[in-house]
Amino acid sequence: MPVQQEAPSTAPVAPVAPDGQPRRRLAALDGLRLFAALMVVAYHYIAFDSGAWPKSSKTLFPTAYLPASYGWLGVELFFLISGFVICMSCWGKSLGQFALSRLTRLYPAYWFAVVLVSLVVFVWPVVNEAPSWGDAAVNLTMFQDPLGVTPVDGVYWTLWLEMRFYLLFAIVAWRGLTYQRAVAFCVLWAIAAIVAEAVDNSLLSQLLLPDNCWYFIAGIAFYLMHRFRPNLLLWTIVGGCFLIGQHYLLQAHARAEEHMGHQIPSWPTVAILALFFLLVAAVSLGWTRRIDWRWLSTAGVLTYPLYLVHERIGWVVIEHFADHVPYYALLPGLVAAMLGFAWLVHRYVERPLARLLKRGMQRAVAEIRAGQPAGRTTGRAAGG
């Protein structure tokens, strides 16, 4: 999820109803985000060949290891939800507002996670080698992947992919998001991604994401169904995205087997992807309106910090306590502790820092528009 990830800092809110009153929050999406995050956590704690456990996961968790081996698919669910949520949150916003919302959403928790994970791995390099301080510093920019710098945590690869989605979607935000432009964006992005793959151009592939764009595009189409109504064109977009996406997903399946060190049947991969599409379709068609439990909104805001901090810190905890705590007590205890820690990060780091960052960036933009920093005067005015 690799997953925002992306998810907004508050629960998604449905479009305004005809009577002008906001519709109920889409708590079901928050539930799906939590489900995706826990899938990724299970994959890294049970199925991934991290070396943290004293024995193979198949030996320690003979029942759980097989379903956990498909947990990497939670990243694809994150991407599908991201297309839905980004289209929803961008509606009615200017390009500047869209950029500011993404900046304040992604960076505060990320900065904290990079520093924390670097320190933990530096102090306890029991599973992974500690990153150099120079590499950790580059990681703070979130541009380590394009710069060829080793990530502080392996899960951060999805963030660069999300940022490229935002860059492309900014084109629509710049012009002003409308139904027609959103549909055109979906169709043109899909065609461009196919062309990029056909001509085998690395630059175009880096920009257009031909192996992962299908989840974002389908998510946008699902949101258009939700905001307006389903039609044959939108269903065609979704269906085409599923058909092409499952092709690339089977390639990702082979890579996941390399990371796990064991092989698993491939047919459940496609079946799980189909389930993801059906679940998001249920949200878009309004079938989940009755799912409005308040705790889901809280759970939704935990997914991003949980995703950022769970992997390598969790491996350190497993390595230190696996010989002292029963495995089936250590694993759920660790997951519960990570969920609690994610809430603390959201409450006491992410939210306050996001407010400070937003105010600072708004002030900086206002000064740029005014032509000079606030509280200063030009030399001529000062001398006059």
Automatic annotation (TrEMBL):
One of its GO terms (molecular function) is acyltransferase activity. Keywords: Acyltransferase, Membrane, Transferase, Transmembrane, Transmembrane helix. Pfam families: Acyl_transf_3. Residues 27-346 form the Acyltransferase domain. The keyword Membrane applies. The keyword Membrane applies. The chain crosses the membrane at residues 31-48, 68-88, 109-127, 155-174, 181-199, 205-225, 232-250, 270-288, 295-315, 327-349. InterPro entries: Acyl_transf_3_dom, Acyltransferase_3. This is Acyltransferase. It comes from Streptomyces varsoviensis. The lineage of its organism: Bacteria, Bacillati, Actinomycetota, Actinomycetes, Kitasatosporales.
